[in-house]
Amino acid sequence: MKKIYLLLLILPLCFPVNAQKFISIKDKTFNWGGKVGMNAALPIVNSLTIDDVEMEDIRLQYKVGYQASVFARVNIDRFYIQPSLTWQYSEGDIRFNIPQEDNFPLDGPLAPNPVSKNRITYKAATLELPVMVGYYLVKEGPYALSMMFGPNIKYNYKNRYSTSLTDMPREFVDNSTPFGISLAAGLGVSIWRLFFDFSYEFGLNEVASDFHEINNNASNKEGALSIDKRTNIMSFSLGFLF
What we know:
The protein is mostly beta strands. It has one domain: Porin (Beta Barrel), CATH 2.40.160.20. The protein is built from one helix and 13 strands. The protein has one helix at 2-23; strands at 30-41, 44-50, 53-54, 56-76, 79-97, 119-140, 143-163, 170-173, 179-191, 194-203, 207-214, 222-230, 232-241. The chain has an eight-stranded antiparallel barrel. A hairpin with a 7-residue loop joins β11 (207-214) and β12 (222-230). The chain is elongated, with a radius of gyration of 25 Å. 22% of the residues are buried. Mean pLDDT is 79; it is low at 2-12, 15-24 and 102-110.
């Protein structure tokens, strides 16, 4: 009976010890990991031209996009360097007003429409290579808070826009500007090997793209849609560090 009592007294003390071993983190020179998350893309559109007519009062409305990354991390004391390979999908709406000109035909491609139809929906998929330099503001036991900053090289392998300005939907595709470069900054919070990242990305290069219309042989020409824009995106992700 005394042995049972002694075992009951020792047993509760074992769990905190095991828990501490479980969540303890040994500093490594090299780590790797992965993360998934969501994004909100609000590109800065400086000009939008459809069929050689420049639109006015441009507004943007984002939709939730997705992203996934694998990365490596090289640790140097409180600093780290983290190159990644990222897939990112984003979409949203560009709303605008058609300038009211007397010479616009009432039945032409840019005939007056309800405001709800004056929009373009964009869908973009990219492969990216961000290289982030991070610094741990807090690094105590299993808890850490870090800030990071670095460049991001983007390859736009799918960039499609569609509009319902007319009764027949129109779709446009762009292959003329596949590459871009931007700067990203963010904060990371981690508990044990789980972490949560928030980042903001801004394009360094202003991209002027001439799209051509697809599924319409009569209008299949470069410049049917022209957009001058710059990357502007926020993202949230949850990951695991090995």
